[in-house]
Amino acid sequence: MTTITFTLGVRFLQMVLLMVACMSLAEGFVMDGANTTLQARVQDLESMLVGVDGRLAALEAFQSECGCKGSVAVHSAFMATMANSLEHCTKNQAVIFEDVKLNIGNGYDNRHGIFRASVAGSYAFTTTLSRPPNFSYHVAFVQNVATNEISYLYADPINMWVERSTTVLTHMAAGDEIWMVCISDSHITGNLNHYAEGAGDFHSHISGFLVGAD
Ligand SMILES: *[C@@H]1O[C@H](CO)[C@@H](O)[C@H](O)[C@H]1NC(C)=O
Ligand SMILES: *[C@@H]1O[C@H](CO)[C@@H](O)[C@H](O)[C@H]1NC(C)=O
User: What pTM was computed for the model?
Assistant: First the structure.
């Protein structure tokens, strides 16, 4: 009994030792493999970070050059001329400038004569309007509702051609709209095709641009 027990005990010990050896071998193998993969990953990440650092440095250099740090540079500007004269523009009727010369950001809609702000900020608008001798116009820039006048331009009926301009600065929220309306019966001259060298296209026009985003 004692011999058998002893032999079994040795066998058991041998098996345990063998198992421990196998386990540590296997473990070493797995750990080495994992460590190699992990190291390769870390190296990849480190080189990616170097790339990101380079890009960040380039972006910061650009931002300090353009003075736009902290905000995204937005470009919004338009200009359109009036093609068809408005001979009887009545109260609250929109003044439409059909011929789009510039429309960066596509804020200006030449079917309705409306400019819509894509971002909140300060905007500048200018208009120049002509009218024939003995006619008059009274117009206003309006914001969001036809009665919310933010600027006014007029020409009384004297016996000479008249061309007048005005500029308005206003703050707009994103989605706000600006357009021009007549505030009493008005006559505004559009494109006079017979004028030489394209001057006929510039009797009446509108332009606007984003001065600065908020
Ligand atoms: C993984 O590899 C590194 C570098 O060769 C070594 O310093 C580290 O001890 C290894 N880790 C393991 C768990 O083997
Ligand atoms: C403008 O009105 C005045 C006064 O009635 C007239 O003498 C003049 O001929 C008119 N001008 C034009 C271009 O019709």
Answer: 0.65
CB 141 within 8 A of CB 123: no
Q: Which amino acid is at 158?
A: I
The residue with greater pLDDT, 180 or 15, is: 180
Best CA proximity match to 83, nearest among 160, 157, 2, 193? 193
For the chain, helix (H) and strand (E) counts, in that order, are: 1, 12
Give the model's confidence band at 16: pLDDT under 50 very low, under 70 low, under 90 confident, else very high. low
Q: Whose CA is nearest to atom 12 of ligand 1?
A: 35
3-state secondary structure of 81: strand
- Count other Cβ atoms within 10 Å, centred on residue 131: 24
Beta bridge partners of 81: 99, 205
Contact between 202 and 99 (Cβ < 8 Å): no
Pairing status of strand 121-131 against strand 149-155 = unpaired
Sign of the dihedral through C-alpha 194, 195, 198, 199: negative
Detail the DSSP E strand segments found in 92-136.
99-104, 108-109, 114-116, 121-131
Question: Ligand 2 center to residue 159 CA distance, Å?
Answer: 6
31 lines ligand 1 (CB under 6 A): yes
68 Cβ below 6 A of ligand 1:
no
Task: Give me the amino acid identity at 119.
Answer: V
What gap in Å lies between CA 114 and CA 178, rounded to an integer?
6
Which ligand has the nearest atom to the CA of 28? Answer: 1
Beta bridge partners of 103: 78
